[in-house]
Every structure is written in C-alpha cells, then in structure tokens.
Amino acid sequence: MCKLQIGLIGCGGMMNHHVTGLLKFDDVEIVAVADVRPERVEAMKERTGATRGYASHKEFFAGESKLDAVYIAVEPTAHDQIEETCIQRGWPFMVEKPMTLDMVQAKAISEAVTAKGLVTAVGFQDRYLDIVAQMKTELADMKVGMVYGTWLGGIPGVWWWMKKSTCGGQLLEQNIHLVDLLRYFFGEATQVYAQNGKGLVCPSELSKDLPAYDTDDFSTATITFESGVVANLMSGCFVTREGNAIRNGLTIIGRDKSMEYALRNNLTVYNAKGECKYNRMSDQSEAHDRAFLDAVKKGDPAAVLSPYADAYKTLLLADAANRSMETGQVIKL
C-alpha cells in the first residue's frame, strides 16, 4: 500500500495530539518534522519514526520537495509564509486554529486555496462529534429562538496565551470552537456586540517564566444571525478553585424543544416526550484527521467539514467580537 507522506510544522502539544491519531492510521507515514525547539524535533522524530528534522519551517520547505500533506500547529502569530508556500507547491494542509491573527493574510489564503481547489482543513474538530451530528438532526425541525454558551476555565500555560496581541484573547483563541459551532448550526451572522473585563486574575500568581499577562479575564458576546437566532457566548480564563463546578457548552432553546450540549461530553434533548441523553462515543479529533486525509486521497476539498475558506468566516466573526470589545460598538457583518 502506498502511504501518504506527511510533514509536520510545529511539534508542541496540539501536534502531539494529532500524532496520537495519525499513528493509528496504516496509510500514513510521517517523514519530516520542524520546530524551533530542537528537543521537540528530536522527540517527535523518535515518536513518529520521521527521518528528517528541521529547526524552522523555512528549513523544512528548503529540504522537502515532495509531500502529500502538511500539518501546521504553530502559535497564532507564527504563520510566516507557511500556508502560502504550501499553496504554491500544491500541498494540501491542515492548520490548527486560530489560523492567524492577521485578517488580511487569512483572506488572501482563503481566496488562494479556493482558486486552486486545494484540499485544506482547519482544526474545528467539534464538527466531527457524533453528538454534534445528532444536534444537526434535532435542529432540522426545531424553531430556535435563543442560544447561550460558555467556555470558562483557567489560563493555559503557554507563553503566547498571556498576551492578547499574541493569542487574540480567549474568545478568538479558545471559545472560537463554539463560535464555529454556532455558524455550523445557524449560518452566517449579521452583527456582534461584545464586552470584556479584567481584575480577577492576579498576574503575580502566574509563572515568572511567562510574559506579563494582559489578556481579558472574561468577555461576553451577543451574536445575531441571519436566521434570526440570537446567541450569547461567555468566555473566561479566571476559574482556578478546585471543585468550582462549571458546565461548559451550549444551551439551545426552541419553542417546543431544547438541547443542552455539554462540551465534548454529552447531549441532552428535552421535548414533550421527556428527555433523551446521548453520550459522545467517538474521538472527534481522529475523525477530523481521517476526513482530511481521505479528502487528500480523493483530491476532494468538499469532503472536509471545516476547510480553510469556511473557517475564515468563523475567524472573521471572532475578530469582529474583539473589535466590538475595543470600540464599544456593534460590529455589522
């Protein structure tokens, strides 16, 4: 069997998460890896059996001439001609979210992959959850009025998350998964209004090895969709106390039916017949990667649920929420 030759750019936590699934696929061979930290390169080579390692994406592209696909998992501000080079070479790519903080760059990449018909995927893995598919089915006959969702927790311990200028803030960096699900369920938004706040996180509590923390402690965004649905998303990275019970996910309220989606865990549907609970039974990340690789084999961009051009619209919506926070204005879309 001819195996897909895969290259990896970025060897941190998210890439290792993808690799856990990729190593289960018998039609994949990881042949080249790149990271600015040499210890990560060596660890990834040992884990995957890759024979070629590089100290940067520029060295990676200089050393590689033929790959079937590239996986990209770098921090939001490190997308320096990575996707653009893949496009020039005709290499399909999967990129982790957020794809960039530069909307001009994102727009150019979106247009370029569309014009070329290139297979791409963005790491909005929740679209591949079996319980999300069930939600889609339930929504088919549901008259929805309002939706509210939360993603509340602590602060990830990576350097770029400390600064809004390098992570984009929690709504854009982390809660963008729920922003994406809202678009997946309800279509495009017409406007967003968001507010943010600080004062709960004490920077002195954080590691001295990390940059000074200056991002939002919490925010809330009200999004209006063309369909008339109004959703409110709350984001917060101030929760620290053990046992502080937080229920993250989405609550969808309709005229005669409602749903509670517990983030990546279960779905409960309520109607006149009572309630029905569905537990997550599959690994959404593996399903996401399998779909991307199958699309690469077929050369079919439409076989991916979260291609770059669609994910770009999710990024634009999250960026609009940030602009609303900055200006205090409703942002029209």
Any key phrases for this structure?
11 helices; nine-stranded mixed beta sheet; six-stranded parallel beta sheet; Dihydrodipicolinate Reductase, domain 2; single chain; Rossmann fold; 333 residues
Task: Summarize, please.
With 333 residues, this protein is an alpha/beta fold.
Molecular structure report:
The protein has 333 residues and is of the alpha/beta class. The chain has 2 domains: 4-124 and 285-307, 3-Layer(aba) Sandwich (Rossmann fold), CATH 3.40.50.720; 126-282 and 317-332, 2-Layer Sandwich (Dihydrodipicolinate Reductase, domain 2). It is 34% helix and 25% strand. The chain is built from 11 helices and 15 strands. A 9-stranded mixed beta sheet has the order 14-13-12-11-7-10-9-8-15. Strand 12 (258-262) and strand 13 form a beta hairpin. The longest helix is centred in the last third of the chain and has 20 residues, at 308-327. It is globular, with a radius of gyration of 20 Å. The termini are far apart. The model has no long low-confidence stretch (mean pLDDT 96).
Q: What is the topology?
A:
Layout (H helix, E strand, L loop, with lengths): L3 E6 L3 H10 L5 E7 L3 H11 L3 E3 L2 H7 L5 E4 L9 H8 L3 E3 L7 H14 L3 E3 L7 H10 L4 E9 L11 H4 L2 H4 L2 H11 L2 E9 L20 E8 L4 E7 L12 E6 L3 E5 L3 E6 L2 E6 L4 H15 L9 H20 L3 E2 L1
Parallel strand pairs: 1-2, 1-4, 2-3, 4-5, 5-6, 7-10
Antiparallel strand pairs: 7-11, 8-9, 8-15, 9-10, 11-12, 12-13, 13-14
Helix pairs in contact: 1-10, 5-11, 9-11
